[in-house]
Description:
By secondary structure, the protein is an all-beta fold. The chain is 0% helix and 46% strand. The strands form 4 sheets. Strands 4-11-10-7 form a 4-stranded mixed β-sheet, with no helix packed on it. A 3-stranded antiparallel β-sheet has the order 5-9-8, with no helix packed on it. Strands 1-2 form a two-stranded antiparallel sheet. Strand 8 and strand 9 form a beta hairpin.
Amino acid sequence: xxxEGKWPxxxxxxxxxxxxxxxxxxxxxxxxxxxxxxxxxxxxxxGPDGAFVxxxxxxxxxxxxxxxxxxxxxxxxITPLERATxxxxxxxxxxxxxxxxxxxxTTDKPKACGSxxxxxx
Length: 121
């Protein structure tokens, strides 16, 4: 069964008795001449979502790639910079009251990004 936007999953019993999970792609070529068999979309989950941090304090942000991929490295950014800064390891330091947006992107290909709001109080 094909669910729009999802890859169908088919299960089959192979002779050795091991259950094998097969992923089938049912797609047509795209308008730009692609093969129509693009991998599932990657998403980035960042936490803590909707967190609050006091001026002068810090909060550690974490990012997770869904579906997971081994060895993912992250590039962090934050806007606007006058309200807070973020280190390469995801540590946010609050400077000025207001809302900021924290973004994490994978550094390898295919690139995947996600963002989350953070409030400085």
